[in-house]
UniProtKB/TrEMBL annotation:
Signal found in the keyword field: yes
Name of protein: Secretory protein
Tree of life domain: Bacteria
Signal peptide: 1-21
Keyword list, A-Z: Signal
InterPro entries for this protein: Uncharacterised_BSP (IPR007541)
PANTHER family: PLANT BASIC SECRETORY PROTEIN (BSP) FAMILY PROTEIN (PTHR33321:SF12), PTHR33321
Listed Pfam families: BSP
TM helices/strands, residue ranges: none
Length: 330
């Protein structure tokens, strides 16, 4: 009896020593998995399946989880965990009995443990367009989610058809509590600030402005930021689903303005250009920016006048007739 206890004690010491010493680190793409006690996984095959399952699920989760989700993840095996998997950003804990029972559903089990961190994740497909809507804020009303979704399906397909037929057909919305600005788009993901959307719950055409950024796909260095943002707000003016409901409008012209002011000030200038100088100029510029063919000379090539000449003509008679849409909500 005494002897067997002493053998067991020695054995435990060795395990705990090696498990500390043997944290196994695996990097794939821009993600790092640190298995803190790999010796708790009985076979190499199980370990390989687990590692593959992790890298098939966690990067997707991180993308949909929103703002600055951890890319460095600790994975620990615990023999006495009361469920098979607990997972959140940066941390995965597995039940040792479960993982060593050669489970067939490692990937799905990790995936559902990760998505339980969200309030909801809904996927809607209509006429070839898919919206995945991840909400991380329990205080976001279903009504707001529904209006953002309706705006997406009313506007985004039109932007794709008008400006870039190769644009993504699948878009991910993430309403994130950790993100404090208004909204931003990168790749096919649009990140919304939960705080902003709750305070400004009529401002659904954030979807239109950011949706245009998804369609633009200019990449870095294609043109000046004021031009990219001016086009996105011009598109919000032209295609906005409920600019009346959100009381969004283009500001009156002021001689203190410049086209470099970006956003709505630039957008108003673009409305004037379309109406008075060259119909379709924004579509042409958008196309050039995507093809990396835009230069300062583009203005002269398209209209016969330089950008500064165009702006001074605008400043001399800046009147435009503006019309806005009002949504009918379902
Ligand atoms: Zn923007």
């Amino acid at each position: 009896m005494t002897k067997s206890i002493s053998i067991l004690a020695t054995f435990l010491t060795v395990i705990s020593f090696t498990s500390k010493a043997q944290t196994e680190t695996i990097k794939r793409d821009r993600f790092t998995l640190n298995i803190t006690n790999p010796s708790e996984i009985k076979t190499e095959q199980t370990k390989n399946e687990l590692v593959d399952a992790f890298f098939e699920t966690y990067p997707q989760f991180a993308r949909a989880d929103g703002y600055r989700t951890k890319r460095d993840v600790t994975l620990t095996i615990k023999p006495d965990l009361n469920k098979n998997v607990m997972a959140k950003e940066g941390e995965v804990i597995l039940n040792g009995n479960w993982i060593n029972s050669a489970p067939k559903n490692i990937k799905n089990t990790i995936q559902s443990a990760l998505s339980s961190n969200w309030v909801s994740s809904d996927t809607t497909t209509k006429k070839g367009y898919t919206l995945i809507f991840v909400n991380k804020d329990p205080a976001i009303a279903k009504d707001l989610q529904s209006r953002l979704t309706q705006t997406f399906f009313a506007v985004y397909p039109k932007l794709v058809k008008t400006y870039n037929k190769k644009a993504k057909r699948e878009v991910l919305f993430v309403v994130d509590t950790a993100y404090k600005a208004v909204a931003e788009a990168s790749g096919g993901r649009i990140l919304f600030s939960a705080g902003y959307m709750k305070k400004n719950n009529t401002d659904v055409d954030v979807v239109t402005h950011e949706g245009m950024h998804v369609v633009q796909e200019y990449g870095y260095g294609s043109g000046p930021v004021w031009l990219t943002e001016g086009i996105a707000d011009y598109v919000r003016y032209k295609f906005g689903y409920d600019n009346i409901g959100s009381k969004w409008s283009l500001p009156a012209f002021s001689d203190k303005h410049s086209y470099k002011n970006s956003y709505r000030i630039t957008a108003r200038f673009f409305v004037w250009l379309e109406d008075n100088v060259k119909k379709g100029i924004i579509k042409t510029l958008d196309d050039q920016l995507r093809r990396k063919a835009y230069t300062e000379n583009s203005w002269k090539e398209i209209t016969g006048q330089t950008l500064d000449e165009l702006w001074s003509s605008y400043a001399k008679s800046p009147d435009v007739k503006l019309t806005y849409q009002k949504a009918v909500w379902k």
